[in-house]
Design a protein that fits this description.
The structure is a homodimer of 491-residue chains.
Chain A (H helix, E strand, L loop, with lengths): L10 H11 L3 E3 L6 E3 L1 H20 L3 E2 L5 E3 H6 L1 H7 L5 E4 L2 E3 L7 E3 L4 E8 L4 H11 L8 E10 L13 E11 L2 H21 L6 E4 L11 E8 L5 E11 L1 H5 L3 E3 L5 E3 L1 E8 L1 H10 L16 E5 L3 H21 L4 E3 L7 H11 L3 E5 L1 H6 L1 E6 L5 E5 L3 H26 L1 E3 L3 H10 L3 E5 L4 H11 L2 E6 L7 E2 L6 E2 L2 E5 L3
Parallel strand pairs in A: 3-9, 17-18, 17-19, 22-23
Antiparallel strand pairs in A: 1-2, 4-8, 5-8, 6-7, 9-10, 10-16, 11-12, 11-24, 12-13, 13-16, 14-15, 19-20, 20-21, 23-27, 24-27, 25-26
Family (chains A, B): Belongs to the class-II aminoacyl-tRNA synthetase family. ProS type 3 subfamily.
Organism (chains A, B): Chryseobacterium piscicola
Subunit structure (chains A, B): Homodimer.
């Protein structure tokens, strides 16, 4: 197996190679669409299940809405339509027919043209709010707290596996509320749920904040987000939660009678995370040997590799290995005993390093004699010899330690790569020489934001929600600024 | 709440009303596409989770393939294309633009026409086998045992909620094997997995069999199926498993080197079940009061309804109700305590009957005095008074009993509605007067099958796989027949 390109040689190439070589995903025969391979999908399933649990714990239920949005519905909320119409898949016909000129070939049947074109959903606010219209009459029908797991399509021109694909998998929450306060609270709550998931499950520190008006979701009054820092110093938006005001309720005429008997438009939120998180996961933890996975997300948490010559040794090692496997499984730890005789131990070591298996147990005849095994951590590549007695508890604790260490390592990296700057010159210098997150002052105008973006490619990732407020003078205009905002180049 | 139309008055209307009134699904603004509402989706989630567990237990893994199939890939397997091209959604453009003549309106941008049209997948053999081509080189790459949970689109002209919709949710297994025997075994195994799921989880008896050549999946060499009998005497195909031979391997040039070093085409299966199972579930168990759910699939297994006057009584009842709820939850039973003060107990009783909650506990002040509650079973509408002491174990057992009873009831219904007939005249008479499954002899030709279908609308549901073989003379041609086959009118 050829080695991965190293991160320092070509970060982008390293990422692309790793996604394919670790069997996570690959490009398909359909432009911009990926195939998520079983190993990658198993990780996504763990993300999905954990998020789904958190959504249900916070009172949400799942439902399913149509894949297609009729053009007229799509048009109803103008900003949303404007934001998504430029990159969407349009269904215009509902039948193919045999090509009379080319036997065995099919052509679009011109007689099967749809009266109204259908858009493959790029996001579901339009189709969902046109449905909510029939569900909401009274304040007693509110709140509606629905989430959907679905595929969506955005016709991106430049695509990259997981990070930006024409089709991707995601969840989209769509809630309706009787009051503005309640909707704002929901949007904030779900952004916190995302932050909690990212930090405690993905071991990926994030900064919670608000988008500037120009970076908001098309149709939102306010967009909350979580922003993570990748190893190459670029930011990745890992989840967004939108307070949609009454925009969609007005566009789709969703009104209800409130407690006081008055008729009002409902208040809305939507919030989403996607398979993009897979990209974030990879770029937060992995190294030049391959994937590094936090134990929470590893399809295989522990692999046992026997070191043996001949069937007899394998049989002896297997006996002990299977006992260890059983004990670990009893503790809810997923274990693979790789007794394949085709591949050598060295090959297996490299393979499981590539796949990011958090803990490797190696066992040879000598280990058996000593009643011990060799344990290797994938995250920091350290090895230790551990007694077989009590091994299950040792590994249980080790997995927790790895989870914590991964988070701490990523947090340290972020700390080292956040710079406070106070002049535009310094800003450009840091951005070019170091990258990472930059905290700087901004005058609050779209003009300054735009100029910085055009001149440096850095955008305002968010206006952080933390309490760390410090007044200053904006980078270019020199106007007063109430607090620093977070800049970075971004995926 | 207006009563449901009764099954005897208008079965079809009863079904449509029930689906909507029990909050399972509704028609959307998109022709033929449904909205699966939270209550319906919660049931589907339980089906999905159980099937997913069974697939994993039988060695399968999940993956995800693109929504779109380029037209040229779709054409590659001729029969498959022929079978699905006539009812598919075709994406021809990738952008909308502002309509210069109508401000606020969008039109398809003629400059954004795709070079090659994309079909929204009606089934994924083509896209998946074009991918497997790159995954399969040696017998060591086989078998591939993949399942996908996805949405698919078939442009059906006449649609009905769950039973036949333009878009539906399903799972599709796609496996590749080194030998014919192994592929046949897989197709048979998965059909059995479906039968096991239907009978033991949905409490729905099914007959396992083979489709006749004219009823096979387009592109299959053999189609296995499970057939269930609905309460109106019509059959419903609840799952299919296909042995695809080497058809897709040949169409997509998927070859491998076998153990002997020879190059061969791979062998394939595919197998699927869909949200159609929701329709089967409803029509197997429900009655004129509403939904009847087997406990395994009920989002709420037990509802506690307090009977009270005034806050004080409610508070006293609540105390005991919450204790009962906690004990039931500890046993893994899902319980809702409906302490809503807006709706009367009678309204609640009707509501939970409509929703099919298997067990209702009613508690008033008198019950509290007697340290007992009233328990009502949804399936047979019987009531009993039960001591609060030991109630949790009582209910745990009761849920098991209900599950078994529902299966037995459906099995009895099927037994009563299977008729052996030996003449075409009798066949037509039974079909008209009684309906149900008919076991009759068939000469094995497409002609006789076609004639019977044209004249009676009954189709051969399957050639059963059971051992109950009895020779005879076919219905119309009078030719010898090795065994009876299963006829019925079908959904």
């Amino acid at each position: 197996m050829a080695k991965l390109t190293s991160r320092s040689d070509d970060y982008s190439k390293w990422y692309n190679e790793l996604v394919v070589k670790a069997d996570l995903a690959e490009n398909s025969g359909v432009r911009g669409c990926m195939v998520i391979k079983p190993y990658g999908y198993a990780i996504w399933e763990k993300m999905r299940d954990e998020m789904d649990k958190k959504f249900k714990e916070t009172g949400h239920v799942n439902a399913y809405f149509p894949l297609f949005v009729p053009k007229s519905l799509f048009e109803a909320e103008e900003k949303n339509a404007e934001g998504f119409a430029k990159e969407c898949a349009v269904v215009t016909h509902y039948r193919l027919k045999n090509d009379p000129d080319n036997p065995g070939k099919l052509i679009v049947d011109p007689e099967a043209k749809l009266e109204e074109e259908l858009i493959v959903r790029p996001t579901s606010e339009a189709i969902i709010w046109s449905t909510y219209k029939n569900w909401i009459q009274s304040y007693r029908d509110l709140p509606i707290l629905i989430n959907q797991w679905a595929n969506v399509v955005r016709w991106e021109m430049r695509t990259r596996l997981f990070l930006r694909t024409a089709e991707f998998l995601w969840q989209e929450g769509h809630t309706a509320h009787a009051t503005k306060d309640e909707a704002v609270e929901e949007a904030e709550k779900m952004n916190k749920v995302y932050a909690d998931f990212a930090e405690n499950f993905m071991a990926m520190p994030v900064i919670q904040g608000l988008k500037t008006p120009s970076e908001r979701f098309a149709g939102a009054d306010e967009t909350y987000c979580i922003e993570a820092l990748m190893q190459d110093g670029k930011a990745l938006q890992a989840g967004t939660s939108h307070f949609l005001g009454q925009n969609f309720a007005k566009a789709f005429d969703v009104k209800f009678t409130n407690k006081e008997g008055k008729i009002e438009h409902a208040w809305a939120t939507s919030w989403g995370t996607s398979t993009r998180l897979m990209g974030a996961l990879i770029m937060t933890h992995s190294d030049d040997l391959g994937l590094v996975l936090p134990p929470t997300l590893a399809p295989i948490q522990v692999v046992i590799v026997p070191i043996f010559k001949g069937d007899e040794q394998l049989a002896e090692i297997s006996k002990v290995a299977l006992e260890i496997q059983a004990k670990l499984k009893a503790k809810g730890i997923s274990v693979k005993f790789d007794n394949d005789t085709h591949n050598k131990p060295g090959w297996k070591f490299a393979e499981y390093e590539l796949k990011g298996v958090p803990v490797r147990i190696a066992m040879g005849p000598r280990d058996l004699e000593n009643k011990s095994v060799e344990i290797a951590r994938r995250d920091n590549l350290t090895k230790e010899t551990v007694s077989i007695e009590g091994l299950d508890s040792h590994i249980e604790n080790l997995l927790k330690t790895i989870q914590t260490d991964l988070y701490q390592k990523a947090l340290n990296f972020r700390k080292e790569n956040i710079t406070n700057v106070d002049s535009y010159e310094e800003f450009k210098k840091v951005l070019e020489e170091k990258g990472g997150f930059i905290y700087a002052h901004w005058d609050g105008t779209a003009e300054e934001e735009e100029q910085i973006k055009n001149e440096t490619k850095a955008t305002i990732r968010c206006i952080p929600l933390d309490e760390d407020v410090e007044e200053g003078i904006s980078l270019i205009s020199g106007k007063p600024s109430a607090r620093r905002v977070l800049f970075a180049k971004a995926y």
